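Study the following:
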Amino acid sequence: MDVFSLLKLYSTGIRDFSKVNLSGAVLSQTNLSKVNLSLANLSRTNLSLTNLSRSNLSGTNLSGTNLIGADLNGTDLTGAKLTWASLMGADMVGADLTLADMIEANLGLANMSFANLHGAYLIGANLNGANLSGANLSGANLSGANLSWADLSEADLTEANLTGANINGATMPDGLKVLA
């Protein structure tokens, strides 16, 4: 399926595009809210400033994808592959990123408040200035991640791996003791 076909079908009310292959496509600044792109291949796709709120992207390959400024509020990204993806300034309030692979992803200044990142892989990810207040990061692997100036107030970091993470200037949850 090509971009034109998907957008035409979407405009008629069709929302199920699971398993579609749009690798390398340009879909920036489009409205795809409530779309089902589960198990799709969207690697290296340009989705900057795209509205994907309340969508199903579970198991989707988004590696190397441009999601700068995208609206991912309430989106299901369970088990999604976001390695090397750019999500600078993305709005991800309440998104479900359980077990998502975000190794080396750029999440600087992203709003991930109240997002579920249980068991997520954020190894070497850039979370500089990100809002993670109230997020569930239990069991997440944040080793080597850049969390400088991130807001982690009221975040659940139970059994999270922060080995080698940069937490300079970060707002940490009350009572959290980080071992150097």
